[in-house]
Amino acid sequence: AQSVAQPEDQVNVAEGNPLTVKCTYSVSGNPYLFWYVQYPNRGLQFLLKYITGDNLVKGSYGFEAEFNKSQTSFHLKKPSALVSDSALYFCAVSELYSGSARQLTFGSGTQLTVLP
Amino acid sequence: NAGVTQTPKFQVLKTGQSMTLQCAQDMNHNSMYWYRQDPGMGLRLIYYSASEGTTDKGEVPNGYNVSRLNKREFSLRLESAAPSQTSVYFCAIRPLTAYEQYFGPGTRLTVT
Q: Long-range contacts: B28-32, Cβ < 8 Å, 24+?
């Protein structure tokens, strides 16, 4: 069974500082990893994914994530945080099940607050 | 919201009432999903449909039924609502050539 852990419920960072939101995963095969962002009273927006290849993947709004197979981690990063980055962030993992369903399993979410 | 619409946006039900949440897509994708979001628990998969006419249970299917009568629509039905079903419900689609899913705006359901 696949699972995802986001060890921090809340992350606070000052505007202009680098930010990191942590994610670790557990799968039996090769992981497909994703980050989503949710602004208040909105649906989830896709930020980036790791499927294969380069361990550093770049996504929307200046975010990037680093895949580390030995540590089973996929941390979300941004070099310089903006107040507008304040939101709820979800990490997710997928494995191929029957057919092509590709179910996602989500972490519990990390609330990022960027302080002005 | 990636061409995914959900109705209604908000709903309040009394315990024991029934209702159907509607999800429609305008992109002709095969795979559709229903999730519920509860504080501190992330999103949990209720049901999914890999293609028109097929549905499968996810992690938390009890108390729900789904219907995928055509490619465009995937509905979620609560036959007898319970307070434990108070949640925000999201529908998602996955394009055939993509690994990621795209989400609708959600339905906020309160059961009293």
A: B28/B71, B28/B72, B29/B71, B29/B93, B29/B94, B29/B95, B29/B96, B30/A100, B30/B71, B30/B94, B30/B96, B31/A100, B31/A101, B31/A102, B31/B93, B31/B94, B31/B96, B31/B101, B32/B68, B32/B74, B32/B91, B32/B92, B32/B93, B32/B94
